[in-house]
Amino acid sequence: MGLKRTKLLDVQVVTGISTVGIFTVGITDCTGPVGVASTSYIRGVIMHNTGFNSCTSSLHMYPASAQGDASAGTANTAYRLIRINLAQNETYFFEPNYPITMVDRESIVVEVRAPDNDNPGTGIGSAVNVQILGDTDL
User: Fold this and answer.
1) What residues pair up with 20 in beta bridges, in sequence order?
2) φ, ψ for residue 116 (rounded to 5)?
């Protein structure tokens, strides 16, 4: 099979405080002529806080066996890859050395919550733009 180099989704906006599943292999339609994503290779994720408050944002990758958890909007720390405090107007790039392979029914979930540590803010009113960069099998 060939690969389609593409952005897997348009920019997704996750507002705080919430946990949202934004991409599921085998279910989510990709941007452009690709259609429903099959095996996908995550090359990077961009997160930008456009809100009025600082927040903590987490990126979770759920296996197919935990699909119910992903669709329920829960943030299970067993599947968390990153957790970052984002100040107002701050951008974070997650770029693994090798693409992360995702297969049928595996999901990406984003959480936006109150900031950790002594950072000011409540997370309420935070809007984090999320862009997933990667490839998918045709």
Assistant:
1) 110
2) -80, 170
